[in-house]
């Protein structure tokens, strides 16, 4: 059974940092890409960052470029999202998901989400 479990969310002041984790199981981790998405109340889901476990290539959305870093520990089947210089507009539920490639559309498996709240 494919499982993705997020953790690490919480409440932080603007300018602070958080590190999210996405623990994966039930599939060959190195064969897929893992992406982070977020959705704020009343807004559409937004792609944040993605990493290819196969070759380590990373991608970040314009709104988080330079502030967020995605990384992977293949030995632990875990993807991390280090979020620095957080802003109130980063407040959202953050989800990790799996696809064949970061540019793919087959985001078929999702975690349950973790809430990130940034206070001003």
Describe, in plain words, how this protein is organized in 3D.
The chain is mainly beta. 0% of the residues lie in helices and 52% in strands. It contains no helices and eleven strands. The chain has strands at 3-7, 10-13, 18-25, 33-39, 46-52, 58-60, 68-73, 78-83, 92-99, 109-110, 114-119. The strands form two sheets. Strands 2, 4, 5, 6, 9, 10 and 11 form a seven-stranded mixed beta sheet that branches. Strands 1-3-8-7 form a four-stranded antiparallel beta sheet, with no helix packed on it. A hairpin with a 6-residue loop joins strand 4 (33-39) and strand 5. The model has no long low-confidence stretch (mean pLDDT 96).
Intertermini distance = 40 Å
Residues in β-strands, percent: over 45%
Judged by helices, strands and strand pairing, the structural class is mainly beta
Could you describe the largest sheet, including whether it forms a barrel?
A: 7 strands, mixed
- Catalogue the unreliable spans: none
Large-scale geometry: globular
* H and E order: EEEEEEEEEEE
Tell me roughly what share of residues is in helical segments.
under 10%
Average pLDDT, to the nearest integer?
96
- Beta strand count: 11
Using only CA atoms, what is the Rg?
A: 13 Å
Number of helices: 0
Structure summarized in a few sentences:
The protein is an all-beta fold.
Topology:
Layout: E1 3-7, E2 10-13, E3 18-25, E4 33-39, E5 46-52, E6 58-60, E7 68-73, E8 78-83, E9 92-99, E10 109-110, E11 114-119
Parallel strand pairs: 2-11
Antiparallel strand pairs: 1-3, 3-8, 4-5, 4-9, 5-6, 7-8, 9-10, 9-11
